[in-house]
Amino acid sequence: MIRVIAPGFFTSIQDLGRLGYADIGVPNAGVMDLYSAQLANQIIGNSPSDALIEIALGKVILVFEKQTIICISGANFSAKINEKPIDLNRSVLVSKKDVLSFEKPIYGARTYVAVKGGIQTEKVLGSRSFYRGVTQQAILKKDDILPIEDWGNSKVQKNASVKIEMEHFTDRNLLVYPGPEYELLSFKQKTQLRTVLFSISSDNNRMGYRLEGVIENDLPSMLTSAVLPGTVQLTPSGRFIILMRDCQVTGGYPRVLQLSEMAINKLAQKATGDKIQFKLEV
């Protein structure tokens, strides 16, 4: 098992989420950056659906109570085992009583700790993903215990590592497609969508990212309609909300754009003040 010594700012257990429950109002949830999470699982031979620890903005300390293999992928939070730096995107043998710690971000906003066999917390509606109102807790707390599988083999694949493209963390461009209400926009509004450089506001979390930057908005009100992670809503004030993995299943603002899957992953690695620009694929 793994004991949580310091839980950090917003650390949770996530997997691929809950699909097929939108009709009863249950969001998808799941890992924010699917690319980094699946990479971590793949490197140590896990299933893509195995649950991981998702860490936002670092400052986490974990103690391992049994030997296992881990891989850390995503943001660089200066990960260390027993105060010695370890590489990202590589299989790492962890021994009993080893301490894994993370400091402040060097780049990125979220990192993933994959453990051999996955984190074995309780499944609810087919998923281990934390979500307030569905699971007993939404974030990890000090002294939480995370069950993991027994793994007694001391051999680690030394070549099990991957070099990632830093563009995943640094690129400002987000590939988007027209949303259901896109054609209601004027030529001027469409031009602004493509040319304005937006900033991530301080109001950003697993539910959604509000953007700094305004465009004119005279669109009529609309009935509440289905939304998905990656849906870009235009509010009456002319500001945008990009819905993320924990978003509600319906919304009442015009859905003017839809992020690609990779764009959602890239946005998950952005923090307050970071800049983004929409790149429209029509």
What features would you describe in this structure?
It is a single chain. The chain is mainly beta and 282 residues long. The chain folds into 2 domains: 2-151 and 158-166, no CATH class; 171-280, Cyclophilin-like (Cyclophilin, Beta Barrel). Helix content is 11%, strand content 32%. The protein is built from 4 helices and 20 strands. The protein has helices at residues 34-43, 167-170, 187-195, 261-267, and strands at 2-6, 10-14, 52-56, 61-64, 68-76, 80-81, 84-85, 92-94, 99-101, 107-115, 145-146, 173-178, 198-204, 208-212, 225-226, 231-234, 240-243, 250-251, 255-259, 275-280. The strands form 4 sheets. A 7-stranded mixed β-barrel has the order 12-19-16-17-14-13-20. Strands 7-6-9-4-1-11 form a 6-stranded antiparallel β-sheet, with no helix packed on it. Strand 13 and strand 14 form a beta hairpin. The radius of gyration is 20 Å and the shape is elongated. Keywords: ATP-binding, Hydrolase, Nucleotide-binding, Transferase. Residues 23-282 form the Carboxyltransferase domain. GO terms for molecular function: ATP binding; hydrolase activity; transferase activity. This is Biotin-dependent carboxyltransferase family protein. InterPro entries: CT_A_B (IPR003778), Cyclophilin-like_dom_sf (IPR029000), PxpC (IPR052708).
Write a compact overview of the structure shown.
Helices cover 11% and strands 32% of the residues. It is elongated.
Any chance you could write out the topology, listing elements then pairs?
Layout (H helix, E strand, L loop, with lengths): L1 E5 L3 E5 L19 H10 L8 E5 L4 E4 L3 E9 L3 E2 L2 E2 L6 E3 L4 E3 L5 E9 L29 E2 L20 H4 L2 E6 L8 H9 L2 E7 L3 E5 L12 E2 L4 E4 L5 E4 L6 E2 L3 E5 L1 H7 L7 E6 L2
Parallel strand pairs: 12-20
Antiparallel strand pairs: 1-4, 1-11, 2-3, 3-10, 4-9, 5-8, 5-10, 6-7, 6-9, 12-19, 13-14, 13-20, 14-17, 15-18, 16-17, 16-19
